Amino acid sequence: MNSGEIEKIFRDEAGRALATLIRLVGDFDLAQDALQDAFAVALERWPAADPPSNPRAWLVNVGRNKAIDRVRRQVMFRGKRSELTHELLADAAASDEACEVTTLDDDMLRLIFTCCHPAFAADVRVALTLRTICGLTTAQVARAFLVSEDAMAQRLLRAKQKIRLAGIPYEVPDREALEPRLRGVLAVIYLVFTEGYAATSGEDLMRPDLAREAIRLGRLLDALMPQRGEIKGLLALMLLHDARRAARETTGGDVVLLEEQDRARWDHAQIADGLKLVEHALRMPGRPESYAVQAAIAALHAQAPSYHDTDWPQIAGLYEVLLRISPSPVIELNHAAAVSMVDGPARALDLIDALEARGGLNAYELLPAVRADLLRRLGRHDAARAAYHAATEATQLEPLRRLYARRLAEMDRES
């Protein structure tokens, strides 16, 4: 097994292994260090032998032992060394089989509820999620919040200290405490999915491990609270988007846009599951929830025989509903893109100009890309080139950079 294969296993398993280690050691930083130690051991041992049958359980067990070693070595833990070491050693005595079956499945959900504790501001919840659950670096999280790396490091440090010093429990709360955290938990799960569906940066367009994990967590929440339309809506939304995964990139890792995708490669069984959930979500009493409306939009895409045969007027109308119940600049941008398919790119460009004038999306990296596409369709190639260059500068994701380069080359050939 080469280092690339080991790194892929680590990426697939790191999130849930880290969640379990945090539960075991009760400290974010110690768990993260222990997991890195376990990965270093894997890089030494696995190339010479077959990987373990359950890599995640192996990483947890090795990481747990590394954490014990760190506690013993570091003077800063001396005051609580005896208690923590006793707990870790007692847990280490449990069988690997018990660890695999009984403790790994819901540790990620516990971690999300911890990150979404009401003691944290909304931006801190998101930052903790990106850093801990999605595995983004502090620098990447800082870019997402438009702050310096040092400022973000301090923000994350204070949050983790608060968890430790205030004794914020690492658990799924009882039913009475679920309600005030549910909206934040759903937002965090969707954030995990979004990072898996379209990565923030790097060489790969997608991180399927994160998308699968978010869907798994959505199913857990749906089982926990089966009569909630927003949970069913979010689960449907994720299933319908993820169903297109196989068609969204070439074998070389280049982006395949929706209008160019081979719909035969979509996961139609998963689409069927998503459509049932959309129907259930929309039938729930009260006004439709935001996730249910977004899932209804995804359902129209999933059911269309082709891109041009999509029911664009209904999609534009659903975005208008979404703007009334959950307004945001990103939804306005998506609405403009749908309007371009109904009323033409000029009308959509007017909407985007008005959005930009209000300053709502100045830091959103996809704004110049949408503008560039509209300008290209209008034949305004000089302005489109400038917008594609701006989009290239704004993104940290290499497949998108290559897409914009292809668009620029196509316009050069047409000139």
What does this entry look like structurally?
With 415 residues, the chain is an all-alpha fold. 71% of the residues lie in helices and 1% in strands. It has 20 helices and 2 strands. The chain has helices at 3-25, 28-45, 55-73, 81-92, 96-103, 107-115, 122-133, 138-145, 149-165, 175-197, 208-224, 229-242, 268-283, 290-303, 312-325, 329-342, 345-357, 367-377, 381-394, 398-414; strands spanning 201-202, 396-397. A two-stranded parallel ribbon has the order 1-2. It is globular and about 65 Å long. The chain starts with a helix and ends with a helix.
How does the SSE layout of this entry go?
Layout: H1 3-25, H2 28-45, H3 55-73, H4 81-92, H5 96-103, H6 107-115, H7 122-133, H8 138-145, H9 149-165, H10 175-197, E1 201-202, H11 208-224, H12 229-242, H13 268-283, H14 290-303, H15 312-325, H16 329-342, H17 345-357, H18 367-377, H19 381-394, E2 396-397, H20 398-414
Parallel strand pairs: 1-2
Task: Work out the helix count.
Answer: 20
**Would you tell me the structural class of the helices and strands?**
mainly alpha
**Using only CA atoms, what is the Rg?**
23 Å
Give the H and E element order.
Answer: HHHHHHHHHHEHHHHHHHHHEH
- What share of residues is helical? over 70%
Name the overall outline.
globular
- Write down how many β-strands occur, each being a DSSP E stretch of 2 or more residues: 2
Strand proportion, as a percent range, falls in under 5%
The description of the largest β-sheet is: 2 strands, parallel
Distance between the termini: 49 Å
List unreliable stretches of 5+ residues.
92-105
